[in-house]
Every structure is written in C-alpha cells, then in structure tokens.
Amino acid sequence: MSNIYLVTGGAGFIGSAIVRALAGNGHRVRVLDNFSSGLRQNLEGLGDAEIIEGDIRDDARLGRAFEGVSVVFHQAAIASVPASVADPVLTHEVNVTGTLKVLEAARKADTRRVVYAASSAAYGDLSTSPKVETMPVAPLSPYAVTKVAGELYCRTFHEVYGLETVSLRYFNVFGPRQDPRSQYAAVIPRFVTAALRRQPAVIYGDGLQSRDFCFIDDVVSANLLAADAADAPGGIFNIACGQAISLNQVLGHLEQILGHSVERRHEPARVGDVRHSLADIASARAILKYQPGFSFAEGLRKTVDWFRLGPDRK
Ligand SMILES: NC(=O)c1ccc[n+]([C@@H]2O[C@H](COP(=O)([O-])OP(=O)(O)OC[C@H]3O[C@@H](n4cnc5c(N)ncnc54)[C@H](O)[C@@H]3O)[C@@H](O)[C@H]2O)c1
User: Fold this and answer.
1) CATH number for position 68
2) What is the pLDDT of residue 313?
3) Nearest CA to ligand 1 atom 1
4) Is residue 257 part of a domain?
5) Closest CA to 70 of 153, 6, 165, 159
6) Which residue from 6, 7, 8, 13 has its CB within 8 A of the most atoms of ligand 1, so it is best to mutate?
7) Is residue 56 a part of any domain in this protein?
8) CA-CA to 272 of 20 to 30 Å: which in 83, 145, 185, 242?
9) What's the total number of domains in the chain?
10) What is the Å distance from ligand 1's center to 144 Cα?
C-alpha cells in the first residue's frame, strides 16, 4: 500500500495546519473538502498536496479519496454550536452520517488508522473540573451530540472490525487561519480582529466563562502522535493546555500584547454555550506522549502577529 495521508476538512482551520505539518515532514498528503467553510487560501503554498473537492457523504468521492491511504485525519464537520442549533438535521448528516461513511471507507480501503476530531463539547456543563475522559458525557447542543456519536462509531469500528481509531477531544483551539468572519466564528479570532480594528469586542454573557484554550500547533502535534502511538487505538483523549482562561482574561492578555485598551460590548449569553471548560490531559501525556508546547500568552501573540500581517501573510 502507498503511504498517503488523507485529511478530510483539510481546507479548514485545523485540517490545513495538519496538511502543512504532514507536507513539511515530506509525506504524501491528500485533502477531501467541500469548501463549505474551508478556504483555498489555507492551502496556498502546498503545491504537492492533492486536493479533491467533494463531500464526505458522497461514496464515490470517498472511495477515490481513500485509494492508497494509510492514515486519515478526519476533521471535516459542521464545527459550530450555533450552526447546529440553526440546522440540527444537516449537522447530523455531515457530522454523524459523514463520519460513519468515512469509517466505512477506511475499513474497505484497509486504512491503518483513523484519527477523529472529537470535541470537549461532549462534557457539556458538568460541574466537576477538570474534565476526565472517563466521565459520563452530557452534550448540551446538537453539535455536541454529533461529536459524541462520532466517537462512539470510532470506538465501535475498532471493537467490531479491528480498525484502529483514535478520538481526540479538542478543547478550544485557536491560532493563525481561524476564520473570524462567520457569524458563528470562535471567540479568539473575533476578539483579535475587532481589537486590531479598534472595534468593541462582543462578549456573550458576563465574560467570566472560561475555556482551556489550546494553540493550533499543539493540536497538530497531538494528531501526528495519535497516528502512530501503539496503545492509542480505541481510545479517547483530551487535547488541551490544562489551564482555564476566562474571556475577560483573554481580553486582558490581548490588551497587553497590543499596548492599548479594548472596548467590551456585552450581549446575552448564547444557547448551548457551556460555562467552564478545563481538561485533564494526563491520558494524552501518558499514551500519546503529548506535551503542550505553548502557553496561552505565547499562542495569542503568534495569533495576533498573523492577523496583524493582513493580506501579506502566508
Ligand atoms: N476549532 C475548535 O476549537 C474545535 C474544537 C473541538 C473540535 N473541533 C473539531 O475539529 C474539526 C475541525 O474544526 P475547524 O475549527 O478546523 O473547523 P473548520 O470549519 O475550519 O473546518 C472544517 C472543514 O470541513 C469542511 N467540511 C465541512 N463539511 C464538509 C463535508 N460535508 N464534506 C467535506 N468537507 C466538509 C469545511 O469546508 C472545512 O474546511 C471539526 O471536526 C470540529 O468539530 C474543533
């Protein structure tokens, strides 16, 4: 079998960073993406990566995309809580049926391993902190339900068919190329781009809600480790930094980096948003040998630098 790495959702924020790292390590990389939220410019400069435009629910495209694939990093999804609240059926089709089809295609193609982008949304608003993978799941949104269903399918395909699957429960990922423009955009690119334009940062709720923000390079390294770790198959791992930062603290760090104050505008809290989220990453450390390499402040500085470059950035 040839040694091709497939990244579904490879034109997205996280997927394109995985593609960049794989290509940089000299691997053959293929992307399957329908460009519903991903951008071609995220793949600029990666001339050797093969790009297949298509939907993960399309069996013919999937079959073609899996030819010769040894590992798939399955990132494609509708990756937003508010989008799932607006259209739960479409979110289910893409995130659950799509993941099932990816697993089935991997099984048929004799793919060695599937690394799945799961989510900390699985924990919902459980009051116990930090979150450990053995806790019961408590999804609060259609999005969270779909991400848990994907994990269950991954584990089941491991148990029933012997397919090597690894689920990585990302906490709040941030970094260069995260899209600030959608109405459902994540908080850090929204705050950074607003602050750079000297516009107010919109906070849903009181700003005391906290997240375990994880810099994109750490998420990429977790994926690469998960592709090979001997004891990982069948497992679910928290991927985060292990530190809780409130949204008000994010703005404080941002003001320090920029050297000016950022105006706050509070709006009502959003349906499906969890209050606090902090990860226990002991299992990822022990089994994947994962080690976060960036503090929140370092990651935020790199993110600000990237957004500051504007159209000149690569
Ligand atoms: N960003 C985070 O903080 C975070 C946290 C937890 C989990 N995740 C998961 O990580 C993955 C990547 O998230 P992201 O932040 O990079 O989002 P993103 O929206 O930037 O990337 C998703 C990619 O999937 C593609 N896609 C969507 N539907 C598709 C379909 N039907 N067929 C083919 N491609 C399709 C999009 O075009 C896009 O390129 C998702 O599975 C998401 O649920 C992200």
Assistant:
1) 3.40.50.720
2) 67
3) 173
4) no
5) 6
6) 13
7) yes
8) 242
9) 1
10) 13
